[in-house]
Amino acid sequence: MPEVPPPAPTGDTLLKVLSALGNPHRMRIVAALVERRNYVSALAREIGMGRPLLHMHLQRLEAAGLVVGTLELAEDGKAMKYFDVAPFFYELTPQVIARAAATITESADRTEKEDAK
Amino acid sequence: MPEVPPPAPTGDTLLKVLSALGNPHRMRIVAALVERRNYVSALAREIGMGRPLLHMHLQRLEAAGLVVGTLELAEDGKAMKYFDVAPFFYELTPQVIARAAATITESADRTEKEDAK
DNA sequence: CGTACCTGTCAGAAAAGACTGACAGGCGCG
DNA sequence: CGCGCCTGTCAGTCTTTTCTGACAGGTACG
Hints:
The structure is a homodimer of 117-residue chains. Chain A has 117 residues and is of the alpha+beta class. The first copy, chain A, has one domain (11-102): Arc Repressor Mutant, subunit A. In chain A, 45% of the residues lie in helices and 16% in strands. Chain A contains 5 helices and 4 strands. Chain A has a 3-stranded antiparallel sheet with strand order 1-3-2. In chain A, a hairpin with a 5-residue loop joins strand 2 (67-73) and strand 3. In chain A, helix 1 (11-21) runs antiparallel to helix 4. Chains A and B meet through helix 1, helix 2, strand 4 and helix 5 of A and helix 1, helix 2, strand 4 and helix 5 of B. The first copy, chain A, binds a DNA duplex (30 and 30 nucleotides) through residues 23, 25, 39-41, 49-53, 55-57, 71, 74, 76-81, 111.
């Protein structure tokens, strides 16, 4: 199969990824999931964190496309949400940043103020 | 000369880099400096940002080793601080994150509260 | 000597993010 | 049917960032 060209992520995407990974807890979460996939409650116990909090972090990671959550039914009928790490790959160089910065269409920038005049 | 082995940044370092880059303004700052080196005041005007604020962002970027500031004396004797982007390169994969997470010795974790008891 | 440009820092307000406890529901087992 | 374990969410707090205005210092020019 042919080579994959160097990825050029959008500013939006890259921003999400970087801010998601730029956090000790989230880094540990990813690390824990690399070892083995797990469901929310168990993972919370493993890394000593409240469920609501972990839920928020996982949500952030998933929004960045770094992990994937799947709701699976166990044999006994219990619904558990398993999380796996997504096979991501990003290169961080000044040029990549420059290109990404040019494509920041973000709404995070201006939270809808008025710039009339 | 020999090949450079895949870099394995410490959790501490990677954390700084990611949180530094995970910000729209800082991304644009890097992008602007890729185009051409510049000094603080001019850069502030260029991207429309207050000097104190820009100063803070540059400080953060420099702390992460992404840009380098040099205080230079202009011909007319004025002191101006020029900033250049540092030639950085980071690979972001689940494995890299996992390895980095293991080396988080951070003080960012607990901001030195009291856990005496 | 007042003006213009450069540098930096500090206190305090505003916004964003992280965190907690309580509550909702669902299913199976003794 | 109460208990245990699973899922999720919401309101409220607390901490961290982000941002602004004002200040202080320096050199050069008219």
